[in-house]
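note to self — DONT lose this again. spent like an hour looking for the file last time. sequence + predicted structure for the chain T wanted, 261 res
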Amino acid sequence: MPMRASRTAQFAIAMLSACVLYGQAPAKADGYRMVEAVVESVRRLSHPVVQVTLRDVRPAGSAGQRGARVVALSFPGQSSPGAARPWTEAGEAAWQLKPGERIRAFLWRQWGSERWYLGRFERAGQGSDPERPAVKGLIATLKVMPERVSPGESVRMTLTVRNASDTVYSYQTPTGQQYEFQVDGPAGRVWHWSHGKLFTTAIVQGSIRPGESKVYSVEWDLKDNSGKPAPPGEYRVSAWLTVMGDERPAAEPVTLVVKRS
């Protein structure tokens, strides 16, 4: 009987593949980790060399054990195998980090070393905050079907982004994740589509031609990210493209009502 690879094995394969394909770390690197954490302190050693202390470190997309702490070094270097110092790819962005910021980061270390290095990362706002200025010429719409639903049912969410301008819209995403859907309740975030998913950690290029539309559709089973059913009430559904920069294609939120059974 064939055995399914565990999520840990799938994660390791995805990370190793990303490093080989995109040159994110020297060939003799070990201990790949994709984590979510809070920046505790930033020690700027010599521009742009930075030592970052992260707290509440846990696997990305997992509640995990809170309180873990990791000290990681970040600086740009050469990517050749014989380079004198590692190539972390965080570079200038790490110099701008501030204590208290939440980030999702790629950490790695070399064989036989206890020192962690900070690779690509994104601030929480890049991956989960739709509140940015809209992109001129792009029309983003969100449809939730149905908008009133009973417990135990599911809803289909569809984000459509159309380029209504006469120029090509080019963009980059910090990871392989291209879009996000999020559901918020009275007490805050209830569910987001990317929870528990693995994405390549390389910057991805994309574009939308004049007159072209990109359509993304997902289904939500009315359970929060811990697997518990969402209680009856009103919820705010949001959707956007996870592009880098100060502007972001985001649709107007839609109200979803979970009826009492």
